Amino acid sequence: MRAVALDFHTRSIEEREVAEPVRRREDEVLFRVLEVGICGTDRALARFELGRPPEKESHLVIGHEALGEVLAAGAGVKNLRRGDLVAPAIRRACRPSCRFCRKRRRDACISGNYTERGIIGAHGYFTDLAVDRKGDLIKAPPGLRSIGVLIEPLSVVEKAIRQALDAYGDRPRRALVLGAGPIGILAALVLLERRIPVVLHSLESPASRRVRIAASAGAGYTRGDPPEADIVIEAAGAAAAGFLAVRKLAPSGVAVILGAHNARGSFPFHDLIVGNRKIIGSVNAGPHAFEDAVSDLGRIGKSNLEALIERVPRGAFRKTLLSGSRKAPKIVHVLDA
Ligand SMILES: [Zn+2]
Ligand SMILES: [Zn+2]
């Protein structure tokens, strides 16, 4: 079967022939990959800024935001049948497993020896077929066929928001989301779904498609100086946004940093202390966050989520990976066409 892969020897991206996956265990599921979403991680992979191939191989099949359709399941799989929609979790436990991986919180792995399909040491889903264990697959209802590819990126958002709300400990009066990429827009939509007023801040035009999606769901928008908020979600991927997230925290507020790069600058430790402000870094997602993603996809207005997706053929991967515009909505490759 054909797969889109990075060649770490030639530092190039190419479509290549790979072996079809085989089910070897009773708890494994074979599925056809329907769609793969592209995000900033894929673009950084395509620039060879991160990632590594599986051991003893020189190429890595990319693609970690996948939606699949089950073709066959082992006898040990009770909850999935042929035709069911599934989204895979991307991180796999470290070996020997650390205490977080042992309790199914691989997203919080403390050894750092995990693998991630399509990113670190394990092939991804930009191909026709895949096999995963049942515990690595999240079942999506058939009604989510047109938006199920958002389950993985939304799971990252769900983990962040759950942590922010848990740490805040009361009903936030306002949330501030920094960045209007797909993660920022999804964060705004989830917070609004929780009936928390949201202000979205980014540098792009209020007329941009992504900003209009958030605005039509009820988010305020500013390119200028944003207001203080009880919860701040940094999804801009810029160091300046990390500092802004901390500066805009109301007393007892919680900032979750999802994308900011390392930075040098002055940091308001004193304000943090006297205001009981909290800063959380968050990556990946655990089982609860995936469950939250599936149930929120069913609750958030489908038209807003569908408007966030732009579908392109599988052959367009060079364009989407190497020259993908930061202004684009969520790019999704259709693989089963
Ligand atoms: Zn991603
Ligand atoms: Zn671990």
Radius of gyration: 20 Å
Major sheet description: 7 strands, mixed
The CATH class of the largest domain is identified as Alpha Beta
Alpha plus pi helix count: 10
Q: Would you report the number of β strands?
A: 19
Heterogens = zinc ion
CATH superfamily descriptor of the largest domain: Medium-chain alcohol dehydrogenases, catalytic domain
Uncertain segments of ≥5 residues (pLDDT<50)?
none
**N-to-C span:** 14 Å
- What would CATH call the architecture of the largest domain? Alpha-Beta Complex
CATH topology of the largest domain: Quinone Oxidoreductase, Chain A, domain 1
What is the count of distinct domains?
A: 2
Secondary-structure content class:
alpha/beta
What would a concise description of this structure say?
The protein has 337 residues and is α/β, with parallel strands linked by helices.
Give a verbal description of the structure:
There is one protein chain. This protein has 2 domains: 2-140 and 307-334, Quinone Oxidoreductase, Chain A, domain 1 (Alpha-Beta Complex), CATH 3.90.180.10; 153-281, NAD(P)-binding Rossmann-like Domain (Rossmann fold, 3-Layer(aba) Sandwich), CATH 3.40.50. Strands 3, 5, 6, 10, 11, 18 and 19 form a 7-stranded mixed sheet that branches. Strands 14-13-12-15-16-17 form a 6-stranded parallel sheet, sandwiched between helices. It is globular, with a radius of gyration of 20 Å. The relative contact order is 0.16. The protein is α/β, with parallel strands linked by helices and 337 residues long. It is built from 10 helices and 19 strands. Strand 18, helix 10 (317-322) and strand 19 (330-334) form a beta-alpha-beta unit. The two termini are 14 Å apart.
